[in-house]
Amino acid sequence: MNMGMKREHDQTAQPEAGVSGETLGTLLNMAGRQRMLSQRIALQAMLAFQQFEGAYAVAREALRVFSESHATLLHGRNGLPGLFSAAIREAFYGSGNVATKIDGFINRAASVLDAIDCQSSQAEAALHELIGMVDPLLNHLHQVTSVYEQESRRIALAQRKGQQELIGRIKAIAKEAHIVSFNGQIVASRAGIAGREFAVVAGVMTNITREMENVVSVFAKRTALA
Questions:
Q1: What pLDDT score was predicted for residue 19?
Q2: Residue 185 has pLDDT above 70, yes or no
Q3: 138-156 burial, b for 16+ CB within 10 Å, e for fewer?
Q4: Is residue 4 part of a domain?
Q5: pLDDT score, position 158
Q6: How many CB atoms lie within 10 A of CB 20?
Q7: What residue numbers bound the domain in which 209 lies?
Q8: Same domain assignment for residues 175 and 84
Q9: 216, 145: one domain
């Protein structure tokens, strides 16, 4: 049973510009949860081998969630991106070849559970091999989670910087529009009756720019608190 579902990683790269804070949090939690799931798989497989009631089903479910989460982190799913940055791609497919090692753990766990289910004479040896894979895998999963944490901080900082730059541009536009409107009112007042309609329009522009400045101010305060 091959549950690794390996694909070419260069086809799953996603642009990071559209990755929201909520999405980053979801991916970070998913990556961190893999450590717990890998331990649960090994523990429940051992209990299943010893014929503890319910352990086999728990092990199967943990393996399913672990496998699906691994596939999601690599390839994306339900709106979540896959390998959305160079650092994340390196974490899985760099010199450590972590993605392949995770696939190997998934396949080994599946074969162990199959052996336990059919009471194979090879089940005990396969189980010992699986247990021996856990500690090295935990180190790799911890490193991957650390990269997600670093990327979350980096992207959040970049997004906040982009928001501040946008606020600055809007403020500059509002200021320029306010000056143009004020100058228009002066010109209209000098034009006498003929300029009254223009003065009304200029007044509306002034109100709009003031409202824009208020909106920008509120947005800036909320961004600063985020």
A1: 78
A2: no
A3: eebbeebbebbeebbeebb
A4: no
A5: 72
A6: 12
A7: 162-225
A8: no
A9: no
Whether residue 24 sits in one domain with residue 97: yes
Q: Which residue has the higher pLDDT, 183 or 91?
A: 91
Q: Identify the pLDDT of residue 7.
A: 42
Q: Which of 115, 131, 159 is the last residue of a domain?
A: 159
| pLDDT at 225 > cutoff 50 | no
Q: What's the per-residue H, E or C state across the chain?
A: CCCCCCCCHHHCECCCCCCCHHHHHHHHHHHHHHHHHHHHHHHHHHHHHCCCCCHHHHHHHHHHHHHHHHHHHHHCECCECCECCHHHHHHHHCCCCHHHHHHHHHHHHHHHHHHHHCCCCCHHHHHHHHHHHHHHHHHHHHHHHHHHHHHHHHHHHHHHHHHHHHHHHHHHHHHHHHHHHHHHHHHHHHCHHHHHHHHHHHHHHHHHHHHHHHHHHHHHHHHHHC
**Residue 24: inside a domain:** yes
Residue 153 pLDDT level (bands cut at 50, 70, 90): confident
Specify the higher pLDDT residue, 31 or 12.
Answer: 31
pLDDT value for 119: 93
32 in the same domain as 138: yes
Based on the fold, state whether residues 126 and 181 are members of the same structural domain.
no
Q: 184 and 108 share a domain?
A: no
pTM across the whole model? 0.69
